[in-house]
Amino acid sequence: MDTNIKGKVVVITGASSGFGKVTAEYLYERGAKVVLGARRTDRIEKLANAIREKGGDALAVTTDVTDAGQVRQLVDAAVKAFGRVDVMINNAGLMQQSPLDSNKIGEWDNMIDINIKGVLYGIAAVLPHMQQQKSGHIINVSSVAGHKVTPAGSVYCATKHAVRAISEGLRQEVKPYNLRTTIISPGAVDTELPGHITHEASAAGIQGYYKHVAIPADSFARAVVFALSQPEDMDVNEILFRPTAQEL
Predict the structure, then answer these.
(1) pTM surpassing 0.90?
(2) Residues taking part in catalysis
(3) β-sheet bridge partners, residue 9
(4) Are 111 and 89 spatial neighbours (Cβ–Cβ below 8 Å)?
């Protein structure tokens, strides 16, 4: 099922790799116009060029989600290029696991800035446009870690729990504007995410686990397609999925 996607303007943060990249490819193949935001300009420009060469509509905008002004510029660029924004996927995220006593305060700040503030900035940037349109769909990316807490994952789990809390508050607030909201909480999926862990023992454990159980990133893209494909009177509020082999 991939109806209700063709022609929609979709803004994606964290679009240079992993969930964001694969989802952009999935959606343009189904007729969406994709606006790609990420810090790695070369990657999103390469992806946008590849989509355009195949006849799709794509725009790349260098974006650091920790900067509210840059996120606003990303959304405004989408509206300027395509006249509207129908879907916002707040996908940019960072996972830096470590025990609290390792005192990796800089990493805690990074996760709070990207995983929480980045989502808030995405909502703030897109909401005025969607309220005016009286239509739109905001998808926020949480995690299985937004449902469970694990040793060495305290701060990461806290940020992903926060995404779910923010998203539920948003869901309740946007009903007068006919907007839809979805939280997607993936389990172990093969992306660059585990590669950002600097605590050696945590990195070894998680990377080893992912090696055995992780599933491809297109699993996330299929979840996005499912949520977007529903009729406008159906609001899929949360999708939690894991590899079949994942116990946690």
Answers:
(1) yes
(2) 156
(3) 33
(4) no
